[in-house]
């Protein structure tokens, strides 16, 4: 039983990594997102049945793709579909070996991810449906994780995904990267998808790990490809800059036991300075295109402020607060306002930041967003209001579904309880905010 349970955990981890590539490759072949996902799920079921006994294959991605493709051909046989596409697939099945698949996963099949992003970001879909569907298929996010990212009900996201798949299936959308005006038309949605994919990897919504680095790496790879496709689009370079700079901190965001390390406590000497230089270069490219900085470039500029400070004490919080002010005008949202409250607190004192956070707490938009009570708890602790801070950290712990984040919030609550009893000031930096 323990052996089977361990195998299932391994298969789940493999599925998280391989499913976006698998669905993207199948969607290109069958021209149907819903069918591609069904075929991928069939391959997963087969893996769950066989791998615990036979062992994990050397190339699990190729095994899953081969199995899914055979299921597709079987489906056509059962339906007695003998058209040209069936013949093409049949010929391919005879010549498409597992070694070919192994090479393909890093080449053409890997590039299918970008094709699928553009297909699922079709203008016929609403913005919310585009992003939700692509995160589900490419990011490997569960419906509840997407709901948390959007701060909406899980049932709402589920309905959007189902309707979007039906719409694309009915339209028989071609799975190709568009060009010209069609590329520009879908660019904003594609950028948002890649951005949210990176966010989920940077600060995982749920699970036992604070980060999902592979998801971040995939988002960064797709972002770089997109910037090459649209070299005159400053926001494409701005998003790449943001992801490059944020990725530079990965080695320092958790300690040896996997516990979160707050931004101001990180060892900056261990930040990846090659990624920082790449990010700064991408930000410079965005600035040279002669247009006002958009939301992604503004966030990259904020990240650049942190990256350019040799120590936490040298951080230019006044500039960061000004950049958040500009970001709040370019892309107004409650999450941006919360980040602005943190920056203002660091620049001008916790009382000013708390005032802004209290205004957000009075509204409904962030009532279930765990970082709001986390920020309020930190600011209350810095003001010596430890009993109130403890209650806020406990509420934050109850709202987050990430085990590492929950442990951090509970530890902060315990520190505040001890400080309230002893009269000591234990205020520390707020948890590092995701790049929202």
UniProtKB/TrEMBL annotation:
The protein, known as: RNA polymerase sigma factor
InterPro entries assigned: DUF6596 (IPR046531), RNA_pol_sigma-70_dom (IPR014284), RNA_pol_sigma70_r2 (IPR007627), RNA_pol_sigma70_r4_t2 (IPR013249), RNA_pol_sigma_r2 (IPR013325), RNA_pol_sigma_r3/r4-like (IPR013324), WH-like_DNA-bd_sf (IPR036388)
SUPFAM superfamilies linked to this entry: Sigma2 domain of RNA polymerase sigma factors, Sigma3 and sigma4 domains of RNA polymerase sigma factors
Signal peptide location: none
Domain RNA polymerase sigma factor 70 region 4 type: 117-168
Residue ranges annotated for the DUF6596 domain, each copy included: 186-286
Residue ranges annotated for the RNA polymerase sigma-70 region domain, each copy included: 20-80
């Amino acid at each position: 039983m323990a052996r089977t349970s361990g195998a299932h955990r391994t298969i789940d981890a493999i599925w998280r990594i391989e499913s976006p590539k698998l669905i993207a490759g199948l969607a290109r072949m069958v021209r149907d997102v819903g069918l591609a996902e069904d075929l991928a799920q069939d391959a997963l079921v087969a893996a769950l049945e066989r791998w615990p006994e036979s062992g994990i294959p050397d190339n699990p991605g190729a095994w899953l793709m081969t199995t899914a493709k055979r299921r597709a051909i079987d489906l056509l046989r059962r339906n007695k579909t003998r058209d040209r596409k069936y013949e093409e697939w049949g010929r391919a099945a005879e010549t498409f070996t597992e070694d070919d698949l192994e090479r393909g996963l890093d080449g053409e099949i890997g590039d299918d991810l970008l094709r699928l992003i553009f297909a699922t970001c079709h203008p016929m879909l609403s913005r919310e449906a585009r992003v939700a569907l692509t995160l589900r298929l490419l990011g490997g996010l569960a419906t509840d994780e997407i709901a948390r990212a959007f701060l909406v009900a899980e049932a709402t996201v589920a309905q959007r995904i189902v309707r979007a798949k039906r719409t694309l299936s009915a339209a028989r959308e071609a799975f190709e990267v568009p060009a010209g005006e069609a590329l520009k038309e879908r660019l904003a949605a594609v950028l948002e998808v890649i951005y949210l994919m990176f966010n989920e990897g940077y600060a995982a919504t749920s699970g036992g790990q604070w980060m999902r680095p592979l998801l971040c790496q995939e988002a960064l790879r797709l972002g770089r490809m997109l910037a090459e496709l649209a070299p005159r689009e400053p926001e494409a370079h701005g998003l790449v800059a943001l992801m490059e700079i944020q990725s530079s901190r990965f080695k320092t965001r958790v300690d040896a036991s996997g516990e979160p390390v707050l931004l101001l406590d990180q060892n900056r000497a261990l930040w990846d300075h090659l990624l920082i230089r790449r990010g700064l270069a991408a930000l410079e490219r965005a600035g040279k295109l002669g247009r006002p900085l958009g939301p992604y470039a503004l966030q990259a500029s904020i990240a650049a402020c942190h990256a350019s400070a040799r120590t936490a004490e040298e951080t230019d919080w006044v500039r960061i607060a000004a950049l958040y002010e500009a970001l709040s005008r370019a892309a107004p949202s409650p999450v941006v306002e919360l980040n602005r409250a943190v920056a203002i607190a660091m620049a001008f004192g916790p009382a000013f930041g708390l005032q802004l956070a209290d205004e957000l707490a009075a509204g409904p938009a962030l009532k279930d967003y765990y970082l709001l009570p986390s920020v309020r708890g930190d600011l209350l602790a810095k003001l010596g209001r430890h009993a109130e801070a403890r209650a806020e950290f406990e509420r934050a712990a109850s709202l987050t579904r990430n085990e590492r984040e929950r442990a951090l919030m509970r530890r902060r609550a315990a520190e505040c309880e001890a400080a309230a009893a002893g009269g000591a000031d234990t205020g520390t930096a707020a948890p590092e905010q995701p790049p929202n």
